[in-house]
Design a protein that fits this description.
The chain has 328 residues and is of the alpha+beta class. Strand 1 and strand 2 form a beta hairpin. Helix 6 crosses helix 8. It is elongated.
């Protein structure tokens, strides 16, 4: 078989993995753009060094006696083995400091929007603090305005997690008892996927989230809706679903503002139906996914802290799912 034909599909498959909502090669934020530039500089420099080393090795193996004699001299050893690495790595280090440090936007968030993100096993508690000091809690999804710097405060409630949205910025650890801060400056609308980048046990691989970047006006309107209480259900099935939700123990862990559900152990569900995904980006967000999560949560996301509820009939699951889906 022609080796080119056998390698090409694998290469295309590998390149396809470099694109998408979690790709650092398609930056959508200021810091990610700088990381992307620095990454390509290092890749091109490393490639140039590799080509040079291969050329010298080929010359040493197959070159004439005169060329081989020159390559075996002390000049090449001192120049290529000491001076060149020292100068080139010093230049790269200085450029890296300049690009990622002194050229970074200054953090000045007095009176501006802030977002607190707490890593929990195995989901994300998200709280917005707006210009008026209002605290608006959500979960497993972050929405940001395009073109505005937003301070993200990161901590953990249990073990070490790590916050990483490759399209927007580098990763930063979330440590119990300590608050780390980063600034996100999203430059274009769209959806980015983030992931816990520090192994935190159990379903670590299923601890993800989405960042939705909106134009300023749309973000302001969304934040007002998010701050409001949940509207009461209107359909008969959703009303029954709410009654099941409140009588089956769900309210002990989850809060739905504007109702009797005031639990704080699990994610706030006040507007869960409007989110991009369920179970920390594990499932699509639709009624079927709600029903599946309630019935089979330990199968969908093994070892997560929500038990599987096999006590409900199919019709009861549908009613619960309709109630949760209309929380928008």
């Amino acid at each position: 078989m022609n080796p080119v034909r056998s390698i090409t599909p694998l290469a295309l498959l590998a390149l396809h993995g470099c694109a998408g909502v979690q790709s650092a090669l398609e930056p959508a934020g200021t810091e990610a753009e700088r990381i992307n530039v620095l990454g390509w500089v290092l890749i091109l420099f490393s490639a140039a060094v590799l080509v040079g080393v291969c050329a010298i090795a080929a010359a040493a193996l197959f070159g004439g006696d005169a060329l081989r004699a020159r390559l075996s001299g002390e000049r090449l050893v001192i120049g290529g083995g000491i001076i060149f690495p020292f100068l080139s790595l010093s230049v790269l280090l200085s450029y890296g400091f300049y690009l990622m440090g002194s050229n970074a936007p200054a953090m000045d968030t007095d009176g501006r929007l802030r977002v607190e993100v707490v890593g929990e096993r195995w989901w994300w508690r998200v709280t917005y603090i707006d210009e008026d000091g209002r605290r608006i809690e959500s979960a497993n999804e972050i929405r940001l305005p395009v073109g505005r710097q937003v301070e993200i405060e990161l901590t953990s409630a249990d073990v070490i997690h790590s916050f990483w949205v490759p399209k927007l910025a580098g990763k930063l650890d979330m440590i119990p008892g300590r608050t780390n801060r980063m600034t996100l400056h999203v430059t274009e609308t769209g959806i980015s996927r983030g992931q816990c980048a520090e192994y935190c046990g159990g379903p670590h691989a299923l601890m993800a989230f989405f960042v939705v970047a909106l134009p300023e006006v749309e973000f302001a309107a969304w934040l007002e809706r998010e701050a409001a209480d949940a509207l009461p259900p209107t359909s008969a099935e959703a009303v029954t679903g709410q009654a099941l939700f409140q009588s089956s123990g769900c309210v002990a862990c989850h809060r739905v503002r504007g109702s009797v559900a005031q639990g704080t152990i699990g994610p706030d569900l006040t507007h869960v139906g409007s989110r991009h995904s369920l179970a920390a980006a594990t499932l699509e967000n639709d009624p079927a996914a709600f029903a599946r999560w309630i019935r089979d949560s330990q199968h969908v996301k093994p070892e997560n802290l929500m038990p599987s509820f096999e006590i409900f009939t199919e019709s009861e699951l549908d009613q619960l799912a309709l109630y949760l889906d209309q929380l928008r």
